Recover the amino acids of this structure.
């Protein structure tokens, strides 16, 4: 088993922790950086195990897992995450990396590449939930704002119930979405009482910044980075998959279909079972493709 070495990095307003699995025979390949947001390094254990021939980096985004936000800010922007990613890659000192980024991590990776394409050789952006690229962007942004406001007002159970309902929805949203009856948290196994905490990284720190990000298509299209946008074969017309296809269209290309759904790479992490073997096979093929 590859040894995991944990490093600590000081960033603006946060202390970021990242893990490096160094492959003895992987010197001829770029390091592979696996990221999510707010998913931390714990979500990539299975996927990393499929790339023991490469040096693999995982990390905990600021305000998630072991990475502590110490500036008191209540929300995080993709540009802040991008700067943290820049610092990690530069600290590695191994040249440009290959970057697999899922969900909010995919949004943050687009922000990184638009600013620092020299740091990333290939980016695989898996289902970035960027609402501004959608034809129903106003309704999608309103739904995300409503989740955030519900969380602040009523707590984790109420906010997460609305988030899950949004994630499960197929197709475009309308203005009626935020006016429909709120889902019952108990129906999703969530607490119905508000415990008073407001430190959830998904609903508090990242909900509005992540989903409100507008990709800089001009910068991305001119970047030296080869950008591949991926969507799950089972994701249908869910919000992140629709946004992924719209981002790909904005770059003038088609999205690449990967096995599974939004969690296709998971192998039991967080109680979710995707198709990690098939997913890793396609990821390896995409990373090794010439164009």
């Amino acid at each position: 088993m590859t040894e995991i070495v944990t490093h600590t990095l000081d960033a603006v307003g946060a202390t970021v922790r990242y893990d490096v699995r160094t492959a003895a025979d992987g010197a001829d390949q770029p390091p592979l950086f696996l990221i999510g947001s707010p998913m931390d390094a714990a979500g990539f254990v299975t996927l990393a195990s499929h790339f023991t021939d490469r040096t693999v980096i995982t990390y905990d985004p600021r305000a998630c897992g072991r990475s502590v936000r110490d500036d008191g800010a209540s929300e995080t922007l993709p540009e802040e995450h991008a700067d943290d990613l820049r610092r990690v890659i530069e600290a590695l000192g191994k040249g440009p990396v290959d970057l697999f980024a899922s969900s909010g991590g995919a949004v943050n990776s687009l922000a990184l590449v638009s600013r620092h394409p020299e740091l990333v050789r290939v980016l695989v952006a898996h289902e970035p939930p960027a609402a501004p690229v959608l034809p129903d962007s106003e309704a999608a942004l309103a739904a995300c704002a409503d989740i955030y406001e519900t969380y602040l007002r009523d707590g984790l159970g109420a906010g997460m119930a609305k988030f899950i309902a949004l994630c499960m929805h197929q197709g475009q949203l309308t203005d009626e979405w935020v006016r429909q009856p709120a889902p019952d948290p108990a129906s999703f196994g969530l607490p119905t009482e508000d415990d008073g905490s407001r430190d959830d990284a998904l609903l508090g720190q990242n909900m509005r910044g992540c989903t409100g990000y507008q990709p800089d298509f001009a910068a991305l299209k001119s970047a030296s980075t080869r950008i591949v946008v991926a969507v799950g074969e089972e994701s249908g017309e869910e919000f992140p998959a629709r946004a992924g296809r719209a981002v790909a269209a904005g770059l003038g290309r088609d999205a690449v279909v990967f096995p599974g759904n939004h969690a296709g790479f998971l192998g039991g992490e967080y109680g979710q079972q995707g198709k990690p073997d098939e997913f890793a096979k396609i990821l390896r093929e995409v990373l090794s493709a010439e164009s």
Q: What stands out?
A: The chain has a mean pLDDT of 96. DSSP finds nine helices and nine strands in the chain. The beta strands are 4-11, 14-21, 32-35, 56-60, 68-69, 97-102, 120-126, 226-232, 256-258.
